[in-house]
């Protein structure tokens, strides 16, 4: 298994290099002059030239990439064009809300969706099965911002149970932290619960028709034991895959959710950096999200080998 993991890690190195080249080149190909944005419309040509020389924009593109890659390897993502703050510090300051929202969404989605999908497969054709599938279609079809505003209207404005917007760090108390995270988590989890539950149901139904399931039933094993001990484990690979895809989709979901609930996380930072055309900040955020996506895929590959040892070979 160790050799399999090492091979998967080595396979990600070319992917990381490709992502770095694409992230670096993407912003160089977009219209607009970072020096002009930083200096303003009233800047003289001499001032623009000085800013370009300071930012290294007057050097060959290969030299710019080599310098930028060296800085990234040292953990230096540059300096924001507008605030003058290091990009690494800006990302670190906004990381906690996004990380809390993402982790709570994945945990809640998985804990709700997998049992729902398994129960729907177990009671195939029943009213509960049809109700779960109807919820899956509805939950995956309704946009996140619509769900978010509906939850705010019901639980915050009508009932007054939860705060409308904002974020409280863990240092302010677990109760406040949880209260401010409930509505964003529910809004973001709805679509993922629907997606994971639907895939879990389909995967388990496919496994339930295999020969070893019929053999287990012939031995007198209870239906619940067949579902939990045999069907669910052997259907784990597609379920893990869709959970991994859901983590990747969280990147776009976090941007919308943080805007709706006014969370000071990375999603809001993405919107602010794009509106300000802050090139170093946009570059650092894209690189961070890309690396997260690569790490998630690597983790999924490793989990494949845990649930299905045949994959190692």
Would you write up a description of this structure?
The protein has 313 residues and is an all-alpha fold. It has 2 domains: 72 residues, no CATH class; 214 residues, MetI-like (MetI-like fold), CATH 1.10.3720.10. The protein is built from 13 helices and no strands. Helix 8 crosses helix 10. The longest helix is centred in the middle third of the chain and has 36 residues. It is globular, with a radius of gyration of 24 Å. The mean pLDDT is 81.
Keywords:
13 helices, 2 domains, 313 residues, MetI-like fold
Quick recap of the structure?
It holds the Pfam family BPD_transp_1_N. The chain has 313 residues and is an all-alpha fold. The protein is built from 13 helices and no strands.
Using the coordinates shown, work out and report the CATH topology of the largest domain: MetI-like fold
Proportion in helices = over 70%
Q: Which assembly state applies to the chains in this document?
A: single chain
Poorly predicted sequence stretches spanning 5 or more consecutive residues: none
Which helices and strands appear, and what pairs or packs with what?
Layout: H1 2-29, H2 34-39, H3 45-55, H4 61-73, H5 87-122, H6 127-141, H7 144-158, H8 174-208, H9 211-218, H10 223-234, H11 236-261, H12 266-276, H13 279-307
Helix pairs in contact: 1-13, 5-6, 5-8, 5-11, 5-13, 6-8, 7-8, 7-11, 8-10, 8-11, 9-10, 11-12, 11-13, 12-13
């Amino acid at each position: 298994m160790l050799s399999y993991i090492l091979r998967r890690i080595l396979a990600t190195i070319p992917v990381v290099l490709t992502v770095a080249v694409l992230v670096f080149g993407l912003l160089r190909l977009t219209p607009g002059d970072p020096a002009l944005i930083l200096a303003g419309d009233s800047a003289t040509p001499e001032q623009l030239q000085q800013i370009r020389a300071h930012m290294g924009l007057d050097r060959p593109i290969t030299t710019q990439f080599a310098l930028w890659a060296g800085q990234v390897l040292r953990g230096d993502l540059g300096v924001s064009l507008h605030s003058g703050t290091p990009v690494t510090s800006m990302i670190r300051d906004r990381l906690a809300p996004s990380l809390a929202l993402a982790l709570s969404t994945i945990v809640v989605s998985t804990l709700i969706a997998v049992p729902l999908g398994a129960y729907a497969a177990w009671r195939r054709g029943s009213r509960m099965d049809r109700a779960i599938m109807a919820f899956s279609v509805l939950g995956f079809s309704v946009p996140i911002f619509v769900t978010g505003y509906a939850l705010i209207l019901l639980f915050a404005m009508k009932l007054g149970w939860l705060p409308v917007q904002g974020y409280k760090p863990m240092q302010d108390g677990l109760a406040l932290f949880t209260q401010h995270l409930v509505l964003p988590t529910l809004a973001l989890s709805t679509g993922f619960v629907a997606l994971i539950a639907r895939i879990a149901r389909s995967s388990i139904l496919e496994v339930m028709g295999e020969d070893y399931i019929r053999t287990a039933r012939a031995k007198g094993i209870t239906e619940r034991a067949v579902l939990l001990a045999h069907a669910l484990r052997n259907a784990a690979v597609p379920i893990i895959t869709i959970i991994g895809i859901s983590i990747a989709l969280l990147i776009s979901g976090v941007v919308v959710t943080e805007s709706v609930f006014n969370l000071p996380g990375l999603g809001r930072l993405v919107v602010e950096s794009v509106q300000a055309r802050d090139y170093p900040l946009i570059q650092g955020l894209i690189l961070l999200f890309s690396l997260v996506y690569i790490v998630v895929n690597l983790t999924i590959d490793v989990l494949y080998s845990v649930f299905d040892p045949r994959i190692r070979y």
